Amino acid sequence: MAILERHDTGAVRRLHMNAPERLNALSDEMLAALQGEFDALREDRTVRAVILSGEGKAFCAGHDLKQMTAGRQAEDGGKAYFKDLFDRCAAMMTSIQSLPQPVIAEVHGIATAAGCQLVASCDLAVAAEGTKFGVNGVNIGLFCSTPMVALSRNIPRKQAFEMLTTGQFIEANRAEALGLVNRVVPHDGLRAETEALAAQLAEKLGAAVKIGKEAFYAQLQMPLEQAYDYTGQVMVENMLYRDTEEGIAAFLEKRAPEWEQ
Question: 143 partner at 20 to 30 Å CA-CA among 68, 117, 159, 218?
Fold first, then answer.
């Protein structure tokens, strides 16, 4: 049984975390499997949208605490292991936003600590009613410093700080109001809603989505004038695509575009 399953439907790829007995924890094995899939997706132009989901009663419960406890047994108290672990996790999280394809988190049950970080790192998120989100490490004496990076880039700072310091969960509707997820749907409609969104994204010109996603994250780090200068250059490049010319012509002629990419 694979710890991470892959299913393709047309131009949509589903990556399904399949370790329900561990609440799909980000173990060494899960991190390696996710990183391997993301590395492969970077060069795969047949896939235009990605769904990330989890088996069992939880989306993802964060790092594997049993593995982390075992890591402490090293002579240095686990310092080298923990540094490597958090570096690998950060690399996997940042891989998501550097992919050419939009990645949608399909969330149910709980998404806690690094699991919440995983939701925040995805480009979009759809959650089932009743899902709970938290960065609860503080409850066991471990402040969720790395999950904080993604969380604080998704929701307002005071709400992020409250979650980080109280260790309390928030409900799905609160997560939607804060901007952590895009929409909340009944549990029995979660898969259909996510797949409909993915299919909508997959219909778009892949080259345009790729250049747009890269520009979206890049401009967020820039001052206003620099952002406009940069994105103006991106639009010039995009306008020169043959398929963009075809898309504009098709719109004016009231027909479906015939894209090559």
Answer: 218
